[in-house]
Amino acid sequence: MPSQMGINLLLYVAMLITGYFGAIREIRYKKHSILHIALFIILFYLAVISRIGHAYFYSDFQHYIDYFLWDNDAYFEPGYVLVTHLIKKYLGYEPIYLVSTIFFLILIFSFAIVYNLNYQYRLFKENNKDYFNYIFIFFSIWSVYHGFSVCAEGLRPGLAITILCLGMVFALNRKWIPSLMILALATFMHTQSVIFIPGLFLLYFVDKVSKKTLYYWFAANVITGILIGMLKLFDFTILEYLFNIMDRHGDASHYEGYLSATENSFLSSQWITKQLVAFLLLFGNHSNKLYNRATILYYFGLSMAAIMSASTIFLRFEGVYIRTFLFAFFYFLLDEKFSSNKRILVLSIFIPYYGIMLVRWLGWYL
Fold it and tell me: Could you report the per-residue pLDDT of 290-335, keeping only the tens digit for each?
């Protein structure tokens, strides 16, 4: 009999496979079914709730449940506090009410992201007759990183980053007011969302970056990451303390725990994986401004993380910006400039490789 953690991972893998084959069908035939979408949602939900009562005592997931049961809101932002109070008032104090509500909120915002990515793609194509609502292409890559983090740990950050990702999608299309409003909402859920403000400014002043510049930027990121990572040139611990004050939380021990628990193992594999993703993004269609802007945000996040790699603050920057590669991959996989077989090959290589790196990152999770 597999352990409960093993069941949780199996459900996640089943969700990923469901999304993968749905994406292949969309790429080849521009088709998907309601039943297929329903199966993906059910597997996602089961993977999330299977964590209840079986999470390690030191995991964020368990802490959120404990705080919910203890009525301890001192650590949380007003938006998250409001959500938990409404759950207790109208549903009750059972952990499944908290987890289920957060899950369905994440799902609603995820579909809003899918809708807006598809809408922007239709505008880019300038051909409504050729328009198709791609759902599984997004969910197949979404579940690789974001879906796993939600299934494993994220309740408050999972909800906040999903809301923030919707704001990022508006920013990619240079819709600044909706983006700022959604950023504010995400910040009310998790203060870390304010880290996206520099990215907003970047997109406001930089409409597009040439492929040649991106090659130089990629090389600079790699060199900077190696040098600063080896020499520990800068210490941004003060920024971590500032975030802890904003979070009303006294220390960053949970971030230190993530680093020390997997020191000399996940950092190297994760760093290499992120650089390989950055390298792969160089070969997409940068005449698509949406793709180019998503790549810019991803590169910017890697740059900031590299500069701050001597402090745990780099984890916060990666947590916010790392998801932007999902938007780039979405447009990469939709681009009919590449054959369907080539796009399926990219999807087939990317999903298992990145998925393995995630499991290695959460080695203690197994």
Answer: 999 999 999 999 998 888 776 666 777 777 888 898 899 999 998 8
Of 73-77, 89-93, 221-225, the least confident: 73-77
Residue 210 per-residue DSSP state: -
3-state helix, strand and coil shares in percent for the chain, rounded to the nearest 5: 75, 0, 25
What are the counts of helices (DSSP H) followed by strands (DSSP E) for the chain? 18, 0
For the ranges 29-43, 54-68, 154-168, 260-274, which has the lowest average pLDDT? 260-274
For CA atoms 110, 287, 347, 262, the dihedral sign is negative
Distance CA 65, CA 52 (A): 8
Backbone phi, psi, residue 93, to 5°: -100, 5
User: Measured between alpha carbons, how far is 166 from 183 in angstroms, rounded to an integer?
Assistant: 9
Q: Are 356 and 142 in contact (CB under 8 A)?
A: no
* Helix H or strand E segment including 149: helix 148-152
> Does residue 236 contact residue 313 with C-beta atoms inside 8 Å?
yes
DSSP string covering 27-76: HHHS---HHHHHHHHHHHHHHHHTTTTTS-TTSHHHHHHHHHHHT--TTS
- Cα distance between residue 229 and residue 263, in whole Å: 13
Q: Which residue has the higher pLDDT, 38 or 150?
A: 38
pLDDT value of residue 357: 64
| Residue 152: count of CB within 10 angstroms of its CB | 24
* C-alpha span between 196 and 194 (Å, rounded): 5
pLDDT the model gives residue 77: 87
Q: What is the pLDDT of residue 312?
A: 66
Distance CA 193, CA 348 (A): 31
Whole-angstrom Cα distance, residue 365 to residue 12? 13
